[in-house]
Design a protein that fits this description.
Elements (H helix, E strand, L loop, with lengths): L1 H51 L4 H16 L5 H33 L3 H18 L3 H44 L1
Helix pairs in contact: 1-2, 1-3, 3-4, 3-5, 4-5
């Protein structure tokens, strides 16, 4: 009887682990889907609030604060944790894409001028950071943008310096040739 009880207990434990695994898998799937949908909705809601209360800074800050408080209310269930992880991942992925697109557009606008690039890129970055739904996602946005922006600015600046150096050397050679 003791062996049968242990066997039954082991089977029950395995069944419980399998059910837990299935629930986690289902929660992860639902959490990911909902997070992607919500990140888009949160951006839209933030922009709507900014547009609606643009002329009233106090009300704007209050409404944005309320929105952020609602976002910060998180569930501590498995579903809530998966949802929040998925939300963060979805936002990070969207921010990476935004940063890449902003970089390409700013490079086009700058036409080789690193200062124009810096100015244009900062405008895009400020928009995305301002629309971020929470402090954590603002930090993610800043990091994504700065990583690309600094690297691209440095490359453009170095290229500009090299071109100036080459042009100065060419002018010097031309000056010597005319002597």
């Amino acid at each position: 009887a003791n062996i049968e009880l242990q066997s039954f207990s082991q089977r029950l434990n395995m069944f419980s682990q399998q059910m837990d695994s299935m629930m986690r898998s289902d929660a992860e799937s639902k959490g990911r889907e909902q997070a992607v949908t919500d990140i888009r909705g949160r951006r839209k809601k933030r922009m709507e609030i900014q547009d609606k209360y643009r002329n009233s800074p106090d009300q704007l800050m209050q409404k944005l604060g309320e929105l952020e408080q609602n976002i910060e209310k998180e569930s501590f269930s498995v579903y809530g944790k998966v949802y929040n992880n998925s939300l963060h991942t979805a936002y990070t992925n969207n921010t990476e894409i935004d940063a890449e697109n902003a970089m390409l557009e700013s490079m086009r606008i700058a036409d080789g001028d690193p200062e124009k690039f810096k100015e244009s890129y900062k405008k895009y970055m400020d928009e995305v950071v301002k629309a971020a739904p929470s402090a954590l996602t603002r930090e993610v946005a800043v990091n994504s943008f700065e990583k690309r922006g600094v690297s691209t600015y440095e490359k453009m600046y170095l290229r500009q310096q090299q071109e100036a150096q080459a042009q100065a050397e060419t002018l010097e050679v031309e000056r010597i040739d005319t002597l």
